Amino acid sequence: MAGAGAFRVMLRMQIKPGAEDEFERVWTEIGDSVTSHPANLGQWLSRSEEKGVYYIVSDWVDEARFREFETSRRHLDHRQKLHPFRTGGTMTTMQVVAFLPSSATAVTHAEWEAAR
């Protein structure tokens, strides 16, 4: 996970009704075209409670390297593969100013309850 100083991009995508499962499948299959870029720090796909709305968050080492990727052939190919599923979307960019790591350990709920 990216820490302070990372450049974060958040996309809100509206997906055509009935195309959600196929969108998720394709997004997962082609995701390495983003995550294999040396400046990418990771990417997340989240489904909103709002029907057909997804959020994609990706972290980058800095804005300049993201903008380099954004205008690359690699990015254009990636966008073309996802475009048939979209009915709209927006992009928000931001600078991460602080990161507070969790002190929790990865345990199941049952393990947590047993330890209480």
From TrEMBL:
* Cross-referenced Gene3D superfamilies: 3.30.70.100
Key words, A-Z: Monooxygenase, Oxidoreductase
Which ranges carry the ABM domain? Answer: 7-94
State one Pfam family annotation.
Answer: ABM
Q: Which SUPFAM superfamilies match?
A: Dimeric alpha+beta barrel
Q: Which GO terms describe its molecular function?
A: monooxygenase activity
InterPro entries per the UniProt record, alphabetical: ABM_dom, Dimeric_a/b-barrel
Recorded protein name is: Antibiotic biosynthesis monooxygenase
The record lists the organism as Actinoplanes siamensis
Q: What is the lineage of its organism?
A: Bacteria, Bacillati, Actinomycetota, Actinomycetes, Micromonosporales
